[in-house]
Amino acid sequence: MTTIQCQGVHYREINSQVDRLWNDGIREIRLTGVNGQRYLGRALSGEGLVEISGLPGDDLGIFSDGVTIRVRGNAQEGVGNTMNSGKIIVEGDVRDIAGHAMRGGKLWIRGNAGYRLGIHMKAFQDDYPVIVVGGETGDFTGEYMAGGMIAILGIGEYSGPSPVGRFTATGMHGGTMYIRGLFDPVQAGLGIGIAEPTGEEFMELSRYIEEYQRDLDWSLPSLTRDSFVKLFPLTTRPYGRLYAY
After folding, report:
1. What's the pLDDT score for residue 245?
2. CA-CA distance, 118 to 8, in Å (whole number)?
3. What is the C-alpha radius of gyration for the chain, rounded to an integer number of angstroms?
4. What pLDDT was estimated at residue 242?
5. How far, CA to CA in Å, does 135 sit from each of 47, 91, 115, 203, 226?
6. 225: left (phi over 0), alpha (psi -120 to 50) or beta
7. Would you state the pLDDT for residue 210?
8. pTM of the full predicted structure?
């Protein structure tokens, strides 16, 4: 694996070095000493691995298309912003708007996520984005979600009675969300259905969770279908009447 030392180096120079290596066919790259640099791993197309030690800044993996990015710790805002395909694995926590406008790919977060996780996620044809969070999330999880899947596992202790915050799925008009643990319907946005997953749905969810565990080398406690609630949109235009005369 080729190593790039990033301590004190501007993100443009780091990305320039990564691009040169990537274009030369070197597809296993380690970034060490990362300390808040933005846009790392952006727009990388094709299979390969970028491993990051330190704290990457905003928009990690923005527009990525096939690469696997692994963070050996926490990450800041906008992880996986508008990613097309590939995988981002964060071994710690992430801040706000992770998975913003994801079009495809997978985002695995071992710890907690901040506000507006998965805002504007969308799916199209074979592109199906999936986010799995091991701990809890903040308010507005899945806001304006249009496709794909979000799973909040609620493992360990969290700050409130529920592993998600207020206004969950506000404006959601596509996709599915699964929440393990206590969920009060007053936490959901308008026009949201709440049910227990079907057996087939739970099998699909379980396949993603198994992949999540393998990638994070983390053995989770037994997860049962009745421990999850499913959130889904009752309409594709939850606020349509607000703008109609």
Report:
1. 52
2. 31
3. 18
4. 59
5. 28, 12, 13, 21, 18
6. alpha
7. 97
8. 0.96
For residue range 52-75, list pLDDT tens digits in order: 999 999 999 999 999 999 999 999
Q: Which amino acid is at 181?
A: G
Q: Is 88 exposed, middle or buried (0-12, 13-18, 19+ CB in 10 A)?
A: buried
| Low-confidence stretches of the chain (pLDDT beneath 50) | none
- In the chain, DSSP assigns E strands to 2-5, 28-35, 49-55, 65-71, 85-90, 106-109, 130-133, 146-152, 174-180, 192-195, 228-233
Task: Tell me what pLDDT residue 238 has.
Answer: 78
Task: Give the model's pLDDT for residue 194.
Answer: 97
Q: Which amino acid is at 99?
A: G
Are 67 and 47 spatial neighbours (Cβ–Cβ below 8 Å)? yes
Measured CA to CA, the distance from residue 113 to residue 90 in angstroms comes to: 10
Rounded Cα gap, residues 223 and 209, in angstroms: 9
Phi, psi torsion values for 178, nearest 5 degrees:
-120, 130
